[in-house]
Design a protein that fits this description.
440 residues; mainly alpha
């Protein structure tokens, strides 16, 4: 900003975001309404929970992880009953359980209070995430954040788990990087990884664009800050509660194929290799191949891709090759999918697929032991249409993003005169290394 430029007052800069904040608050409220059948007692009966599509992890984990009596990671419980989340989420659960115990004496009442307070935190996280996403998108694409604020899949999945906390931290990281505040971006990235593991995929996206532009100092500062923040919040638990701390990592490594994953289809149908091989190895190999393809694309594209495009491709690759693909994982992808390619048609198609999967998983569980209610539920083949619906629609969006990278003139964001709205030091940066330069 030059000496002759006058920055607009804070109020003037804030007003354009007010409607988005209010709509996000409406989305958070609708998400609460969706789960009212459970909130009023339905979660004590599995059939009622599934037929009303209102399942949440928040209420049952209060009992199952002994939050009513003990602290996460330090709890004197069997290893498989330790909190299976990274430490930031574990401590969020801890603080809210303390407040719930202080407000209520009865354990059931505490669990209900624990749910309500957690929902308030998650609703605030959604509003913050939407506002941060709007700031990342910039004034020309600010309203794209509506997809995150109130899209049906977000409303349906918002309060299944604690994912919205990681979403707010991830959007904060992206905004800080875009504003060239590398230390803050690194701290938020480290905290995001210590909340949910998926933001680790953004490290690869930053590295590839750094390799192409040779902007190494900002990258190294960000990575150092991220590592420092991660160590700072993890070290006390690693030192004083090793078994509780490592529960998340052991659980992630040893967990078998679970709901939503394409690997479950291969196992169910008895496919050779894909259905009877070591899924951990197969999944890592598939992810490595996709990441190699993303790397080649990033370094071979005629114009440097935008950061949001590479983040989306990396995150989508991670989800599609993972051993589990829970309904709430849609919350990870929505903001990055929209920032990567804000075209409403493929986004709407994907949202329909996510809504179908959200309904299908609960109907499928009704038909599984111990309930085995085939009069209410659906069978394998119907369920797997929902699994593949998500894979195919996300694959379509990935294909369009790849096309936009190879043909930058098709990129809707860049048609607005923007190079990279979240790129920070990458914005308008010159190429220093590409595959074409190596092959000359």
């Amino acid at each position: 900003m030059t000496a002759t430029e006058v920055r607009a007052p804070l109020v003037a800069r804030t007003v354009p975001y007010l409607p988005l904040g209010l709509i996000a608050a409406l989305g958070a409220t609708l998400a609460y309404v969706v789960r009212l059948p459970c909130r009023t007692g339905g979660w004590n009966d599995q059939v009622t929970t599934y037929t009303n599509f209102c399942y949440t992890d928040i209420y049952p984990l209060y009992f199952d992880r002994e939050l009513a009596t003990q602290n996460p990671y330090f709890a004197d419980v069997p290893f498989d009953k330790q909190v299976e989340y990274p430490v930031v989420l574990g401590e969020v659960m801890q603080v809210i359980s303390w407040i719930s115990r202080w407000l209520e004496l009865d354990k059931v009442a505490q669990a209900v209070r624990f749910y309500d307070l957690t929902v308030i935190l998650l609703g605030i996280s959604l509003v913050i995430g939407v506002l941060l996403m709007a700031a990342v998108a910039g004034p020309t694409r600010r309203w794209d954040a509506l997809w995150y604020a109130i899209s049906p899949a977000v409303v349906l999945a918002a309060y299944i788990n604690w994912d919205l906390v990681a979403g707010a931290l991830s959007m904060g990281m992206l905004l800080a990087w875009g504003r060239r505040r590398q230390v803050l971006a690194g701290v938020l990235l480290g905290l995001a990884i210590a909340t949910k593991f998926y933001p680790l995929m953004f490290v690869g996206a930053l590295f590839l664009l750094t390799l192409r532009t040779a902007r190494w100092r900002p990258f190294l500062v960000t990575m150092g800050s991220a590592a420092g923040a991660w160590v700072l919040v993890n070290a006390p638990f690693m030192i004083f509660a090793w078994d509780g701390w490592r529960r998340f990592y052991v659980f992630s490594e040893e967990r078998g194929v679970d709901w939503g994953s394409p690997w479950l289809f291969f196992q169910n149908k008895g496919w050779p290799v894909l259905g009877d091989g070591d899924v951990s190895t197969l999944g890592m190999a598939a992810l490595a191949l996709l990441c190699l393809g993303i790397a080649v694309l990033t370094l071979a594209a005629p114009r440097r891709p935008r950061l949001a495009q590479i983040c989306f491709l990396a995150l989508a690759a991670f989800m599609m090759t993972n051993k589990v693909w829970s309904p709430q994982f849609v919350l990870w992808l929505v903001p990055f999918a929209v920032l990567a390619r804000p075209n409403w048609k493929p986004l709407a198609l994907w949202q329909l697929a996510e809504m179908w999967y959200f309904a299908a998983i609960w109907l499928y569980l009704l038909n599984q032991p111990p309930l085995s209610r085939n009069d209410l539920g659906i069978g394998d083949d119907t369920y797997f249409t929902a699994v593949w619906g998500r894979v195919i629609t996300i694959g379509i969006m990935m294909a369009f993003v790849v096309r936009d990278i190879l043909r930058p003139g098709k990129d809707l964001v860049r048609q607005g005169g923007v190079d990279d709205q979240a790129g920070g030091v990458f914005d308008d940066a010159r190429d220093r290394f590409t595959l074409a330069s190596v092959l000359r």
